[in-house]
Write a structure and sequence with these properties.
EcsC, EcsC family protein, 74% helix, mainly alpha, 10 helices
Length: 281
């Protein structure tokens, strides 16, 4: 996705560096969503009709869907309570040793992939353990990103913001997404002020839907192991991207206030105008 530079837009309060950060945050979520969509298509082709039947069968089993919702809610609750254990409340990301960052990312990706492979190979019995481990790992990564962007994890607001990442939809930023006003900001407004228990229930609904689709493509042995590993990696990449964008924007909002949302709206309008001009040409 291409977004106009600051010189092509009306003057804004954000400086050029912050404008670039906001642009990259919006693009990062688009990229994260693309990973999920492309991998879902790939896995659907790999498992074929069995996966599609799995989706339909899951849809026709309300009791099983309720169980999966309960699994998701329990996993989210445990992760919310334990993800920041041992973390310092705040930390400058630039202070982290480069060697630590270099080995941590591949180690985390490998861990969730192995968990997904084991869960996919063992089927339903391995689902709960896989969901619990992967959810905890994802929440831990979200908290780490929050801390790197200056959030104080000792506050309830920062911890709730970590939880919100699971419920936020991808930004409807491109010209084709005209049905709602900047879904990211609207979603945040709807989530704001909710008690943690209600927020966890809301998050579990979104997360549980993703888990049901994930389970549907893991219904076949061996192929299920491959799908489980790949989908876990995609889940991790997606939520990392959303968290990076979410906490970058929150940091910019602490610096520039409501100008951040106005700037994002102007960027979106600029993209829509460019797209319309391209169609007319």
């Amino acid at each position: 996705m291409s977004i106009g530079t600051g010189s092509e837009l009306a003057p804004m309060a954000l400086d050029s560096t912050s404008m670039t950060e906001l642009q990259q945050a919006l693009e990062r979520v688009e990229s994260g969503r693309g990973v999920i969509v492309r991998l879902a298509d790939l896995m659907g082709g790999a498992v074929g009709q069995a996966a599609r039947l799995g989706v339909r069968s899951l849809g026709m089993a309300p009791a099983f869907q309720a169980k999966l919702q309960s699994v998701a809610e329990s996993a989210i609750t445990r992760a919310f309570d334990a993800a920041i254990l041992g973390m310092k409340p705040t930390e400058d990301a630039r202070a982290e040793p480069g060697a630590l960052s270099q080995w941590r990312d591949p180690a985390v990706r490998t861990a969730v992939a192995v968990s997904g492979a084991v869960g996919g190979f063992t089927g339903l019995p391995g689902l709960v353990a896989d969901v619990g481990f992967t959810t905890m790992t994802i929440m831990r990564e979200i908290a780490r990103i929050a801390r790197e962007q200056g959030e104080d994890l000792s506050t309830a607001e920062a911890r709730t913001a970590c939880l919100e990442v699971f419920a936020l939809r991808a930004f409807p930023f491109a010209a084709r997404d005209q049905e709602s006003e900047l879904g990211y900001f609207s979603a945040r407004a709807m989530l704001r002020g909710r008690p943690v228990v209600m927020l966890i229930s809301e998050v579990a609904t979104h997360y549980g839907l993703g888990l049901s689709r994930k389970l549907a493509v893991q219904m076949m042995p061996v192929a299920g192991a491959l799908c489980g590993a790949s989908l876990n990696s995609a889940f991790l990449a997606h939520y990392r991207a959303v968290a990076q964008a979410h906490f970058t924007i929150r940091r910019l909002e602490r610096e520039f206030g409501p100008e951040v949302r106005r700037t994002a709206q102007d960027m979106r309008t600029h993209v829509a105008t460019q797209a319309a001009a391209g169609v007319q040409a």
